[in-house]
Design a protein that fits this description.
The chain has helices at 12-34, 39-46, 53-65, 67-77, 79-98, 103-131, 134-164, 170-173, 175-186, 202-218, 230-249, 265-293, 298-306, 308-326, 328-348, 354-382, 386-419, 425-460. The chain is mainly alpha-helical. The chain folds into 2 domains: 12-200 and 252-460, Growth Hormone, Chain: A; 201-251. Mean pLDDT is 83; it is low at 463-473.
Length: 473
């Protein structure tokens, strides 16, 4: 770390670039949550109600599968160029979504929008990692991570506001001015580092994309009943094994699988997978508990889920400030302990405890995620050079998202084994409660594994090597 400056001075140009990056991250994060409250209205206006799950699923699939590709492209061709392409694609697709004449077209354009969204988060965090040394980056990455959580709070409310006033199409139209302003602010970013050599490995990229898409379909993504197709999931595993073989022999790997053997990055990716599953489970199953077991309203369910996004930004900011003083290992342990505590609150809760107990549990879970998510991203970026930072950053996001998507799908299968055995409405409610409790126990186990990894990192207590940052002109 001796070659790294202690602080990069804040110039007007740097302020504009950071504002543009934060705005880009906010609009992409908000777009993943803003549609939910408008889905019934959209389905009513466009028809083909049976297709409406694909408005979410199409976006999720492309936003997930393209993340490693965008990260690799950012290493090969530079951050600004790739971010501009991804933002342009996101804005154009948003305009097309707003003008969609039918449900089929909206699904197609929403799927295209997910491709652009898959670029924004990993490249934004990569640029922040390029510019700032460890001390400044720790504080800024925490704020940027918190921005994602704030967007999760704002999105559903903004969607409801548009639906009740100017109409659901403004959910997508609003992205145009925000995206254009963000791109204009970031346009002045000039990288001092030369783009990396090599090319995108087409074979491994195709295999990865096909494998993930088949796996998500096989686990029930896009199905109104979330019914798994196990033969399709088996085919997906074969394709992903083929991807691993091809990728391990590639001179230009899309996903840096060798980083999984790194003494620091490997455990960080494990935490991302496990923590992502817990996070996605809150979004997926807390509304079911509040509405199906507690008998609460959709608004109450939204409050219970949104409570997670209260603790997350606060603790992300705190983690950024204290990471340099206490070390990332202690933050991982503390965050994992909160994750475990929140999961235990859910597993030990009952319908008599009410919605307030559930909301308190999600606040604790969000606080835990906030404590370790940003520090682990910083550590990952600090252990790779410029030419692999985009791919490494994307690997972290991809691990959290795909781990969450797969884990929650399997938890859905567990839930269905309880619900299907119900014979009458009263028993169905009891079985739903039992199934959700089983999922909460799974969350406890996953959180305990995160804590075990954190304790292992704390016991190892090995130093992090920090490469020199890249200044912005």
């Amino acid at each position: 770390m001796s070659d790294s400056p202690e602080r990069v001075p804040w110039t007007p140009q740097l302020v504009r670039v950071m504002a543009g990056l934060m705005l880009s991250l906010f609009v992409a994060a908000m777009d993943s949550t803003v549609v939910g409250t408008a889905l019934p209205t959209i389905a009513h206006d466009l028809g083909r109600f049976e297709l409406y799950p694909w408005i979410v699923s199409g976006y999720l699939i492309t936003a997930t599968t393209t993340v490693p590709i965008w990260g690799r492209l950012a290493d090969l061709h530079g951050r600004r160029r790739i971010l501009m392409i991804g933002t342009a694609l996101f804005v154009i697709a948003s305009a097309l979504c707003a003008a969609s004449p039918s449900m089929e077209w909206l699904i197609a354009f929403r799927t295209l929008q997910g491709i652009g969204a898959g670029c924004i988060q990993p490249v934004v965090f990569t640029v922040v990692g390029d510019i700032f040394p460890m001390r400044q980056r720790a504080r800024l990455q925490g704020l940027f991570a918190g921005m994602w959580a704030v967007a999760a709070i704002v999105g559903p409310g903004l969607g409801a506001l548009f639906v009740s006033t100017v109409g659901w199409r403004w959910i997508f139209t609003i992205n145009l001015p925000i995206g254009i302003i963000a791109a204009a602010l970031v346009w002045g970013y000039r990288e001092r580092q030369q783009a990396g050599a090599g090319s995108l490995d087409v074979r491994s990229t195709v295999l990865l994309t096909a494998g993930i898409v088949l796996l998500l379909f096989g686990l029930g993504t896009g199905s109104p009943t979330a019914t798994p197709n196990w033969p399709l999931a088996g085919v997906a595993l074969v394709v992903l094994i083929a991807f691993g073989v091809v990728e391990s022999r590639s001179a230009n790997p899309t996903v840096p699988l060798d980083l999984l053997r790194h003494r620091v990055i490997g455990p960080a990716i494990v935490v991302a997978v496990l923590g992502g599953t817990v996070m996605f489970a809150v979004f997926a199953y807390i509304p079911l508990w509040v509405q199906g077991v507690d008998g609460g309203s959709a608004y109450a369910a939204g409050v219970a889920v949104g409570a997670m996004s209260i603790g997350w930004p606060v603790m992300s900011a705190v983690a950024g400030w204290i990471m340099i003083r206490v070390g990332y290992q202690r933050l991982v342990v503390a965050g994992a302990a909160l994750l475990l505590a929140g999961s235990l609150m859910l597993a030990l809760g009952s319908r008599e405890m009410g919605i307030a107990w559930t909301a308190a549990a999600t606040i604790v879970i969000g606080s835990g995620m906030g404590l370790f998510s940003a520090p682990l991203l910083i550590v990952i970026q600090s252990n790779v050079g410029w030419g692999r930072r985009g791919a490494a950053t994307a690997l972290n996001q991809f691990a959290r998202t795909i781990g969450g998507a797969i884990g929650v799908s399997l938890m859905g299968v567990l839930l269905q084994t309880f619900v299907r055995s119900a014979r009458d409405p009263l028993q169905a409610r009891d079985q739903l409660a039992a199934g959700l409790h089983a999922d909460y126990v799974v969350m406890v186990v996953l959180s305990a594994l995160v804590l075990a990894v954190g304790v292992g990192l704390l016991l190892a207590r090995r130093s992090v090597q920090e490469p020199s940052p890249v200044a912005v002109s």
